[in-house]
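Recap from last week: sequence in, structure out.
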Amino acid sequence: MTKGERQNSDEIVTKGKKQNSEWIKKEWGSKTRHVGFVTHAREFLSVVDLIESHDAAESKDLFWSDGRLFVKYYLLCHAIELGLKSYLVQHGYTQEELRKMGHNLCKILAEMDEILTEKNECSIGHSLVPPYLRRAIAFLSDLYLKKVFEYPVRTGTMCSGEWPCVKTMLRDIQKLLFFLNHLYVADSNAEERASNTER
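Predicted structure tokens:
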């Protein structure tokens, strides 16, 4: 690569970063940005659903021999992260606050539970995230945080115990996203009614 080509390449990268930064600021300023989180989560889940439709077998032997299960767990965890963070975003959490939580699913879930406790709506929390999904999050959170599903690792670094069932997780996360979307639509309708009343 010549000096001129390198300079041109650097300019393209710089321009791209600036455009991305402006787009992110614009999107973050949107009142419906939390809905975007749910939409993205559904896209990740749709890929898991697609893989599952081509994967009849599900066993521990398959887990160690078939990398697609790593992919499934990664996609499921990312869908959970986006779904839970959408709730936090709707309740005023900033980009910086979400960034500090990183990809720690247990911490993100605890933040959501705290909001629900403050609103005296703990029962809603158990409907949103049922016991099985909570146990799956507890089991997978550290592995997801350490990017175990994204890169080759030694089997010795894996957790012992029964791994969560992909199909059950898929079902529970689909319900989570459905309920979240239902809450957001209800809130949006309430805001619209309040706005019309003020007029």
